[in-house]
Amino acid sequence: MVSLPTFPAPSTINNNWHIKITGLPQGTSKEDLSVKLQLSKHNIVVPLHQQHGVSWFAWLNNFENEQEANEFANQWNGVSMQPDSSIYIVCKVRPPGSMDNQQRSGRSSPESPELSQACDFTTSDVEISQDHYLQEEKKQAELKAHYDSFPDIDTATNKTSPDIKKAEEFTKSILNKIPSGIVTERDTACHILSQLLKNENQQCLFYDSKNGINLQDASGNLIDVGSQEKPFVLKLRSSAGLGGRNNPKTERDDLKLAETINDSIKRNESHPVIEDIAARLGQAYGVDKKCIVIKSVYAGSFSVVYTILNLAQTVVQNIQNVCIKLKKQFSEFVSAKIHPLLYRPAFDISFFDERGNKTFSSQSEVHQIGPPGRTKPYTQPPGWTRYGLKVLGKYESGDWLDPFQHPGNWYRAYHGTGSAQQADFNGSNMSFDQNNACVDALASIFATGFRLARVAAYGPGVYCSPNPVWLGGSGFVGAVQINTTAGNKRFKCMFQVAVNPDGVNCATSDIWVVPKSHDIRPYGILIKET
């Protein structure tokens, strides 16, 4: 047996819920666990005696209830204490008093009976459960399904494609015609969106798939709330050679590595594979490796999701030959993908979801929305026209939005960007015009997802309001002017959003704060003539 210094067990360990954590490297100390788990040392017990040849274990205590213990256990299950380790920790929640029962069935240590738990340790404790693998495989599959839908760079940048030529002509036929200015008509909406999605030296394309034009429709990516920037994707056959690694023996090896790397990214920790990939990508794009931000990786082959800081439009426009450079840097290269909105975004004119289109009456209607016992008022926006976005089917379940007043519905709210400034644009390269700040900032949200508020009066997060009248009359909703057959007209623009009931802080009756951007989802654009 190997001994650690004796750490007295707090008296609360048998009065509260606690967790047995296994799969720890030999020699793990309270200090190691405190740093890794961000938990007070007073809530950690490392048993006095541990076994040779197997991973160590410890106790985490002082959880007030089962839910709190389960949330902590779910957060840390499957995490490796050491980079690139093949051993992953497993957390098992135990009820109050269970430690006493375990002591009665095993040996005790004369030095400290309450800490001797070697008898409770089994080899199965350090094995990753099949359930954990299935959960991780599901997460990886979701990432794969989303990012694999991105177009290949070679396809997206092919300017000679017949479909691109047809889309260019179709776009001209729409934008060269002065819109009616009637807010409910599609030509008006297209002109507003052309302004809204306009990039510097770049024009979006419209097309009609019913006419046989086959392009990558970017509308499904307009609401990528979890994405802070528009990413690229590098697809490799495997992780072989990255960070000095040998060939992975099985697909599960790449799954383990992906999980470990994603954990390092989450905790903002360095990892040799991350450093190696960033250096190679920097070489391919001709930028400093510090400008490469690895967002996530996923298995099923081995794929890397990344962004490039301060991405100049010239880099995007000259990206056609980057695949050749990537092949030189990565021997396992398969393909490279680009976010649909990053290079000549194209939109099927049917990307508006007609089921979500609606003109609201001048009188507000109020409905109760949310989980039973926790509902909140949904005040419809009086006098606004909504263009619904195709969001149903994008997420695993559609209960957050439909059917209306389902118990799983998220709260409804509104988000405006009328007071936007260049600093609000999330580092994007979109053109900035203070007169059109509302539109430009909406485009930034469309393309990059919601960003945290620049001025956080009620704490960090995304700010929104359940009160459309208050928000619509505030400085947070601006207006854009377009030329119409009826003369120049000005239109206000804001988002209609759904907010996770478990992820919102209702700071005041008019101001809500959503700390995490993935807990807020836009499902419609609201337009109103001023």
How would you characterize this protein structure?
α7 (186-196) crosses α12 and α9 (272-285) runs antiparallel to α11 (322-329). Mean pLDDT is 75; it is low at 1-14, 100-130, 223-228 and 419-448. The strands form 7 sheets. Strands 13, 16, 17, 19, 20 and 22 form a 6-stranded antiparallel sheet that branches. The protein is an alpha+beta fold. The chain has 13 helices and 22 strands. The radius of gyration is 27 Å and the shape is flat. The chain has 4 domains: 2-128, RRM (RNA recognition motif) domain (Alpha-Beta Plaits, 2-Layer Sandwich); 160-223, no CATH class; 232-338, no CATH class; 356-529, no CATH class. Residues 98-117 are annotated as: Disordered.
Derived from helix and strand composition plus strand pairing, the structural class reads alpha+beta
The number of helical elements comes to 13
Provide the domain count: 4
Strand content: 15-25%
Radius of gyration: 27 Å
Write down how many β-strands occur, each being a DSSP E stretch of 2 or more residues: 22
Largest sheet data: 6 strands, antiparallel
Helical content band: 25-40%
**CA distance, first residue to last residue:** 78 Å
List unreliable stretches of 5+ residues.
1-14, 100-130, 223-228, 419-448
How would you sum up the global shape?
A: flat
- Report the mean per-residue pLDDT as an integer: 75
Region (Disordered): 98-117
Biased composition (Polar residues): 99-117
